[in-house]
Design brief:
Layout: E1 2-3, H1 18-30, E2 35-36, H2 43-46, H3 48-66
Parallel strand pairs: 1-2
Length: 67
């Protein structure tokens, strides 16, 4: 699950924001780890390299389980 803190900066502490609370609730029910991504609404444009570094191991893990 992706956490977006509402201000575009990871770790800013907006864990009281309702979108974060919904993400946490859903990740708990699915047994998924909640992951904080760099950047704001478009991290693929503003923090592309960091986002790729974060996603690459997840995609490899999925490829091993489905392929």
């Amino acid at each position: 699950m992706r956490r977006h803190d509402g201000c575009g900066q990871p770790g800013s502490g907006a864990t009281h924001h309702w979108l974060f609370e919904c993400s946490r609730w859903l990740s708990d029910r699915l047994g998924a780890r909640l992951v904080e991504t760099p950047g704001g609404h478009v991290p693929q444009l503003t923090h592309a390299a960091e986002l790729v570094d974060l996603l690459r191991p997840m995609v490899r893990s999925l490829a091993r389980t489905t392929g």
